Amino acid sequence: MVIIAVLCLFFAVEVQAQTETTFVARVAAAPEKVGYRLVEGYTTLKSGWIPIDMGYIDFRNAKEYREIFVGAGKVVKADERNLVVGELYFVQSGGPASGNARYLQPWILAQRKIQPTLKLEGNYFMYVPLNDLAITQHVIDRIRLEKDLPRNWRIGAGYGAYGGSGLKWDHRPFVYVGRSTKIGNFEVWLQKFSSGVGIQLRYDVTLK
After folding, report:
1. CA distance 195 to 52
2. Residue 121 and residue 140: Cα distance in Å, rounded?
3. Interacting residues of 106 by C-beta distance below 8 A, sequence separation 6+
4. Cα 63 off chain centre by
């Protein structure tokens, strides 16, 4: 019922006040249990508010562990050189490996255009436990430097990491290539994990 209510709110907001709706899809094939699949959609209003952001992610085996997340936030700053976005999610895990853990998840994205074709970007979020079976977790999705190339191509390199209560930090440097097209933005990552090298495909499209 909660998911149905959220979906109704999502479409109501789109009809009445939509300025941009973004869809995100990612898939990763990686050693051991660090691969994942993610889908997400969110709407951004002219005021900068993000009234609804919802998605799903599972890790390697959807039957064992998965998460549904719903949140909201705001574009705090947006100009020709800077972008700062903050959001807060509620995360519900599922599957026999999840322990039915629930979290609050503060999330922040920051970008800085150093030169017209050179950008620095960082994205961090945290799992804050809401029940006894949940544990504190920290995720640096990316701190990266990106260079624009002709014909809408771009290349970059950066650093990611994962750790938390009782967990050893997994340092995850990566390189990637991307391209912007009429049907969306595509990226292919090669990323180093403690257990080996994995590949990621990332896609997003914004509808105005």
Report:
1. 36
2. 11
3. 86, 87, 88, 125, 126, 128
4. 21
Compute the average pLDDT of residues 84-96.
96
Q: For residues 23-40, b (16+ Cβ closer than 10 Å) or e, as one string?
A: ebbbebebeeebbbebeb
Of the CA atoms within 13 Å of residue 43, those in its CB half-sphere come to 17
The CA distance from 122 to 53, in Å, is: 19
Look up residue 29 and give its amino acid: A
Pick the CATH number of 2-147 from 2.40.160, 2.40.128, 3.30.70, 3.30.1490: 2.40.160
H or E, element range at 7: helix 2-17
pLDDT at 4 over 60: no
